[in-house]
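Much of what follows relies on a compact textual record of a protein's fold. Each token is a code from a learned vocabulary of local backbone shapes. The record below shows the convention in full.
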Amino acid sequence: MFDLAALDAELTGTLFAGRLHFSPVTASTNTNAMAAARAGAPHGSVYFADEQLSGRGRGGHAWHSAAGQGLYVSVLLRPAIAAQRLPLLPLVAGLAAAEAIAVAASLPVDLRWPNDLLIGPRKCGGILVESQIRGNSIAFAVVGIGINVHQQSFPPDLATPATSLDIEAGRRIGRQPLLAALLKSLERETLALLDPSAAESIPSRVEQAANWVRGRRVEVHGPQACEGVTDGLDADGFLRVRINEGVGGDSVVIVQTGGLRDAETG
């Protein structure tokens, strides 16, 4: 379990101090955070749980959230940025999660656009961003992050093979140090969205941190289904996929939503 007093003390000076909300068991931390956002909860409110009964990922997929085994956290943000920058938010959340895992577990994390955290070919975490737009601005956004920490086995029907930090590190990784590192990294990364020059560098930073966004043959599933070779991110954080259309040569699809799988390994 978490030591809430110690965690809050470690977060002194961050926007999350005094705004931690822990539930031993809940349906979904993202659901809790979305409800709190609509009720006027402040920027920087954090909702996390020891177990989720109805955890979910992008596209309505269930997220296995066994008691005491993972990190299940949702952060409410009210960033003063234009709605067009919203697609950058899951990208900076991925950068923050990768940094936190490196700090807490000394493990390298690959980012599979738009929201998966991988160690090698195996998935160790995911990100779900839900938001409400008002006019041209973001009224609020909830950044949900799930990370497998102590799990030793997983459901057999997962689309991507899964792993946990304990398995990869060969030792037990503390969830509380991981959460503290994650929140500190997330604060730094979200501040970048407020700085126009820093925000411009986010796609290139993701390209440097990810093996999936350039030179990888992928299948895109979702409304923009296609197969081709990834060609980096555009300025809005959308994925460029170069496809071969035959006589006319290559063309580029700008993928705004969907998921990826390796076209060569499946």
Observations:
- Residues 88-105 form the longest helix (18 residues).
- The chain has a mean pLDDT of 92.
- The longest strand covers residues 122-134.
